[in-house]
């Protein structure tokens, strides 16, 4: 079977139907991963007994494949009677996987905030939660903006993993076309090109945003 | 099935996981070094070609690349086995990331190193071989370890090309007996046993490297 460029061109709109889900999954997973990652890092710093436990949790998350984590959530949750749409399971899975990496980003970001800031807030009588929310977090944001931007692109590129859970994102749409037409070469090729374009657009946007915010060089 | 039986059953796929990892490294390391060095030295059109090649391999989602090459290459008359496609795609994807660490490591070297080498009468190639590369490779080792872990984890994707790796074995066992908790926690533990020591090793290297330099945030 030879490659049919006319057919490939014709199915582009069909594959593009999944782009909405791809973007929704990417944005939700990025927010989930940031929230969880920040939580891990704050927990890691909370006291010396929790520290080694959280360190292990973060290392364990980073030491297992995202595919295995997705399968685990997808097959184990229903076993305990938790039945969720595949898209929601997928967002949980990607959030969980990337939270391990983002907690490291937050760790580096918080390390760069001068120690005196936290001590000053405490001596002014702020509670620990208020110190984190009003003093540490805002100053940390500038330090983490650039690596967070890079990870947002990574998360976008991880969204096609959800096709294995039959979530109708772009790779999923490509598979739909393939199973309807019994031709795999063209849909997979088109999906490849479209994802490459999407990723390059995302990289350009993130770079532009970094320059706009003036955070291009991560401070050392 | 006991948990131990499940774990041993999953490790029956270790051979494929290991082979794809090793073959992947054989693609990744030369590609990372070559592309990183070429991107550092080339100018004009040549640099554009090198950058486009690197960006192609590292900007596309690896799972999509895998499917695209697996299904589309035969349509162009190129027939490769699933192992070859898996190792090539995973390896070049990681190599694309690696090339950026090589380039960054070369760029952050002090200019004086090169100038001193040239002043001693070494040729430009010799300066690269004996002065710049050894320092750059030492600087990028922690990043390299992290990327090797990404590659090991990435091999789970070859299960989608129906290769019998550890992930594929888990899916097979899951069909034999309904025990999703045992099988899929077994799968996570199986990868954890392999990758966790490497993660800890990389973290230690990173800490000792960070003493001299700023810590790197990329993976």
From TrEMBL, chain A:
NCBIfam families: HEQRo_perm_3TM. PROSITE patterns: ABC_TM1 (PS50928). Residues 19-206 form the ABC transmembrane type-1 domain. GO terms for cellular component: ATP-binding cassette (ABC) transporter complex. It holds the Pfam family BPD_transp_1. GO terms for molecular function: transmembrane transporter activity. The chain crosses the membrane at residues 20-40, 79-98, 188-209. Its main location: membrane. It comes from the Bacteria. GO terms for biological process: amino acid transport. It is found in: Cell inner membrane; Cell membrane. This is Polar amino acid transport system permease protein.
UniProtKB/TrEMBL annotation, chain B:
Keywords: Amino-acid transport, Cell membrane, Membrane, Transmembrane, Transmembrane helix, Transport. GO terms for biological process: amino acid transport. InterPro entries: AA_ABC_transptr_permease_3TM, ArtM/GltK/GlnP/TcyL/YhdX-like, MetI-like, MetI-like_sf. Its main location: membrane. The keyword RNA-binding does not apply. GO terms for molecular function: transmembrane transporter activity. The chain crosses the membrane at residues 14-36, 48-70, 76-97, 183-202. It holds the Pfam family BPD_transp_1. One of its GO terms (cellular component) is ATP-binding cassette (ABC) transporter complex. This is Polar amino acid transport system permease protein. Coiled coil: none annotated. It is found in: Cell inner membrane; Cell membrane. Part of the binding-protein-dependent transport system for glutamine; probably responsible for the translocation of the substrate across the membrane. Belongs to the binding-protein-dependent transport system permease family. HisMQ subfamily. Residues 14-202 form the ABC transmembrane type-1 domain. It is a multi-pass membrane protein. PANTHER family: GLUTAMINE TRANSPORT SYSTEM PERMEASE PROTEIN GLNP, MEMBRANE COMPONENT OF AMINO ACID ABC TRANSPORTER. It comes from the Bacteria.
């Amino acid at each position: 079977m030879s490659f049919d460029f006319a057919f490939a061109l014709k199915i582009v709109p069909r594959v593009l139907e999944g782009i909405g889900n791809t973007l929704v999954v990417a944005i939700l997973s990025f927010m989930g991963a940031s929230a969880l990652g920040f939580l891990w890092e704050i927990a890691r710093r909370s006291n010396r007994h929790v520290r080694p436990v959280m360190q292990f949790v973060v290392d364990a998350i980073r030491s297992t494949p995202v595919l295995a984590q997705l399968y685990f959530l997808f097959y184990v949750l229903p076993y305990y009677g938790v039945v969720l749409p595949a898209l929601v399971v997928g967002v949980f899975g990607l959030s969980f996987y990337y939270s391990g990496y983002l907690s490291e980003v937050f760790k580096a970001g918080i390390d760069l905030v001068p120690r005196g800031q936290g001590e000053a807030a405490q001596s002014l009588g702020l509670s620990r939660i208020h110190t984190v929310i009003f003093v540490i977090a805002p100053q940390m944001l500038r330090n983490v903006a650039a690596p967070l931007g890079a990870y947002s692109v990574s998360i976008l590129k991880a969204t096609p993993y959800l096709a294995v859970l039959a979530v109708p994102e772009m790779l999923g749409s490509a598979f739909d076309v393939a199973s309807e037409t019994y031709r795999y070469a063209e849909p997979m090729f088109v999906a490849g090109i479209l994802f490459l374009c999407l990723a390059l657009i995302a990289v350009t946007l993130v770079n532009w945003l970094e320059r706009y915010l003036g955070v291009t060089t991560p401070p050392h | 099935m006991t948990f131990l039986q499940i774990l041993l059953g999953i490790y029956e796929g270790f051979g494929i996981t290991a082979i794809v990892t090793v073959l992947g490294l054989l693609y990744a390391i030369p590609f990372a070094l070559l592309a990183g060095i070429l991107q550092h030295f080339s100018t004009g059109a040549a640099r554009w070609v090198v950058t486009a090649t690197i960006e192609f391999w590292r900007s596309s989602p690896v799972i999509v690349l895998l499917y695209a090459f697996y299904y589309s290459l035969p349509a162009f008359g190129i027939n490769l086995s699933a192992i070859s496609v898996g190792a090539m795609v995973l390896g070049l994807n990681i190599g694309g990331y690696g090339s950026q660490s090589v380039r960054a490591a070369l760029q952050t070297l002090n200019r004086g190193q090169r100038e001193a080498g040239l002043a001693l009468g070494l040729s430009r190639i010799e300066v690269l071989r004996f002065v710049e590369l050894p320092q750059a490779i030492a600087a990028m080792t922690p990043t390299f370890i992290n990327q090797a872990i990404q590659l090991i984890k990435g091999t789970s994707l070859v299960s989608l090309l129906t290769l019998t790796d550890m992930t594929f074995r888990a899916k097979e066992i899951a069909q034999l007996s309904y025990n999703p908790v045992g099988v899929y926690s077994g799968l996570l533990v199986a990868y954890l046993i392999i990758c966790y020591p490497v993660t800890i090793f990389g973290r230690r290297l990173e800490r000792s490297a960070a003493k001299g330099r700023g810590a790197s945030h990329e993976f």
